[in-house]
Amino acid sequence: MSVLPQETTVPANPSTAAAETRAAKLMKRRSRIRFYEIIVWIAAIAAYFLLPSKMLILTEIAILALFAVSLDLVLGFAGIVSLGHTAFFGLGAYVAGLMAQHYFAEPVTGLIVAGAASGVLGLLTSFLILRGSDLTRLMTTLGIGLMMAEVANQMAWLTGGADGLSGFSPGPILGMFEFDLFGKVGYLYCVGVLFIGTMIMRRIAFSPFGLSLKAIKGNSMRSAMVAVPGRKRIVTAYTIAAVFAGMAGALLTQTTAFVSPDVLAFHRSADVLLVLVIGGTGYLYGGIFGAILFTLVKDWLSVITPQYWMFYIGLLLVILVLIGRDRLSRWVEYLPERLSKKEDR
Amino acid sequence: MLTILFDGIAYGMLLFILACGLTVTLGLMNFINLAHGAFAMAGGYVTVVMMNRYGISFYWCLPAAFIVSALIGLVLERTLYQWLYQAPHLDQVLFSIGIVFMAIAATDYFMGGQQQLINLPPELSGRMDVFGVGVGRYRLFTIIVCAALALALQLILSKTRFGSRLRAAVDDRRVAMGLGINVPLVFALTFAFGSGLAGLGGAMGAEILGLDPNFPLKFMIYFLIVVSVGGTSTVSGPFLAALLLGIADVAGKYYVPAIGPFVIYALMIVMLIVRPNGLFSRGGR
């Protein structure tokens, strides 16, 4: 027996009990489904019926949204700036492609295997980001991403090298729904995965676990003082994020039936950061709103200047930072808060 | 064997010149500037334009590349960078990625996407034989120039009044201002100097590294590796790191071509695990 009092599960006095139920109530209120969330999903379904000719771009948005939401778990909650999130996206994309080509064409299986593979990579590399400062983290994540790109390029016998991997076709989803030419099934599939993924991540993010991540982000030393196991939490969050990023990559492969080293390119990491910043970090739906805005802007720009849209994306980034991205995300959050204020009372 | 060592040293020296400007901005001023390669690219393109369009001698191009990049750096520092010194790292990362994207697209627009070539003056091209070791003349030139610059930089930072002002401004901005040091001026000059060095490196590296609009992204990782592995509080750390990486990279690509490109990343990760704050660091930064 240690001399120090053990953690008590039974509250010592009534006031702690009251505090605990208050905390539980607060947690519950924080995690309640907000009004704007329902609107998002209704809009996603409505888009299927209202915009039948825009399925491909909508699918792109759904995939990017899943990717961004997974990054939000690392960046928005744990506060880790990662420049190598594409490593997981790309690995998932390649694993799904190879699965479809060699083993099993059923997409959901491919999705799960891809997610698992990325999760393993995430777990292995998460130990690298535990050390050093922000700069060291940037470096290691960037290095991991570039290394993965190099691997994909070098192992041409497996990945097709710079030409990419093609000549496979994903089978019907769960053996029932065949991918059609217009991408309608693909869209519903991606939105479905996005929905399930977001709900799972939401459950994680608004649990005590998510709160402790925010505590680590706020002040890691102080959070360690109140017995938050920082390193363990970061490893877990990073691994979970990697799983979902891998799934996003797998979705891209399955809906386009093609993988190229482009899935591992640096600009993807930058894009997904931009998406998150546009949408606002730390409340998950930022990834979804950001993905919608970003894809529309990018699409619009690439029609105007097919070759130089990158310039305007860069300009957007610079302006965003200079006017203050907090101001922007506050504006984005303002609406949801207004909409859900009444429910809170 | 010795030839590879020599090439590696030349490559490492070049990396050092490219990266040492970043050592100053990133290391001393604590600003994560991923756009450093864009300044190097500017210097490279200045050289290409001057040599290929106007036929100006290579030796004049080097100082010109320095001055032009330094001026660009000065203007950008005064207009944009100076507002972000206190910003969170994420903001700095996003901002500098934005600058990189703009630089790439603008270069592509004005200069075209193809690889740029320069013709070295005859006395710098070719190889000569020194005690049975094939020594590229241009590489020898690179080593001499870079070594001189490294020495000068070290002296400026440690011995001159400007160097001590800079270190004071970095360590405690408020106290430095209270002592009458014009901190914004010191920072602006330092930033310009760092950008100028990058431009010079770009001009000299155009021959060895190649030059196209993707330069800032392609070499970003190398600069960052040099700085983060070398540690950010000294000049000698990045210098050693650059040499080590240059030699490892050249040797890796020569001896084990299949895994050559990974050598540098693997080295970086190992070194960051062993010394997360750099080779010679005075505590976490």
From TrEMBL, chain B:
<feature type="transmembrane region" description="Helical">
    <location>
        <begin position="6"/>
        <end position="24"/>
    </location>
</feature>
<dbReference type="GO" id="GO:0022857">
    <property type="term" value="F:transmembrane transporter activity"/>
</dbReference>
<feature type="transmembrane region" description="Helical">
    <location>
        <begin position="220"/>
        <end position="247"/>
    </location>
</feature>
<protein>
    <submittedName>
        <fullName>Inner-membrane translocator</fullName>
    </submittedName>
</protein>
<comment type="similarity">
    <text>Belongs to the binding-protein-dependent transport system permease family. LivHM subfamily.</text>
</comment>
<keyword id="KW-0812">Transmembrane</keyword>
<keyword id="KW-0029">Amino-acid transport</keyword>
<dbReference type="GO" id="GO:0005886">
    <property type="term" value="C:plasma membrane"/>
</dbReference>
<dbReference type="InterPro" id="IPR052157">
    <property type="entry name" value="BCAA_transport_permease"/>
</dbReference>
<keyword id="KW-0813">Transport</keyword>
<dbReference type="InterPro" id="IPR001851">
    <property type="entry name" value="ABC_transp_permease"/>
</dbReference>
<keyword id="KW-1133">Transmembrane helix</keyword>
<feature type="transmembrane region" description="Helical">
    <location>
        <begin position="138"/>
        <end position="158"/>
    </location>
</feature>
<dbReference type="GO" id="GO:0006865">
    <property type="term" value="P:amino acid transport"/>
</dbReference>
<dbReference type="Pfam" id="PF02653">
    <property type="entry name" value="BPD_transp_2"/>
</dbReference>
<feature type="transmembrane region" description="Helical">
    <location>
        <begin position="179"/>
        <end position="200"/>
    </location>
</feature>
<keyword id="KW-1003">Cell membrane</keyword>
<keyword id="KW-0472">Membrane</keyword>
<feature type="transmembrane region" description="Helical">
    <location>
        <begin position="93"/>
        <end position="112"/>
    </location>
</feature>
<feature type="transmembrane region" description="Helical">
    <location>
        <begin position="57"/>
        <end position="81"/>
    </location>
</feature>
<feature type="transmembrane region" description="Helical">
    <location>
        <begin position="254"/>
        <end position="274"/>
    </location>
</feature>
